[in-house]
Amino acid sequence: MLSIEDAVLPKMPGAAEDALREFVRRLVKSEGDSLARVVLFGSAARGEQDEWSDTDVFVLLRSGPIPDETVARIFATAWSVSADEYGIAPFIEAPGGRGPVHRAIAEEGVVLYDAVGNGEKEAVVPMTEEERKAIVTGRLDKAAEELSAGYYNLEKHPSASVSHAYHALFHATHALFAAHGMSKKIKTHKGLKSVFYDEFVHTGMFPRELAHALGKLERMRYDGDYNMVSVPRGDAASALDEARAFVARAEAMIAPLI
User: Which pTM does this prediction carry?
Assistant: First the structure.
């Protein structure tokens, strides 16, 4: 069994974390033995929550159908503890469901309460082979979109182009993880680079001369987005070209696996 007191949460704003922990405590008290698991997902699980983000929480009950009064009670509990800027958004299901949130939970979920297991997220919603492939292709599609947006903005908004270039690498890297069946919880951009190097670069699977773009573009993106540093057009163009080569290599590695 895993309780909210034992759960390891990603970095969150203090008010959001306090509200989340209190929500789970009250949920355990109100739902008792009918509560199976509670899982954090979305931007909060990725460590990217801001004042505009809800705290997305998956609530798994032991059996269905779920009475309307139970749904109303859980939502009322969420509303009663939500901080002003960080509302808790429950997604309530019974066993056997495969709603649209399951893919996100399988990929990034953080277990907050587990009455029947040890908190392994794979026990919450096992990922099917079809879902794994959908995650991979979805991530690659997002990488292509980011590259396209980067080149589109290059002339007038080079700093934005660098952000798009980095996020193309971000999605391509996650596609590699999913294609190889990896389920590590990665909550920060630094953690993404660390795992990528451990699993693919240091093992010789991904060329080091292409891999360095991940760290380089993340620093450029951070300076442009948060330090208000203007990126010259030439630097942005080079970043996009590096990102395109990185994504192309990732696609070549993934193709035999899906």
Answer: 0.60
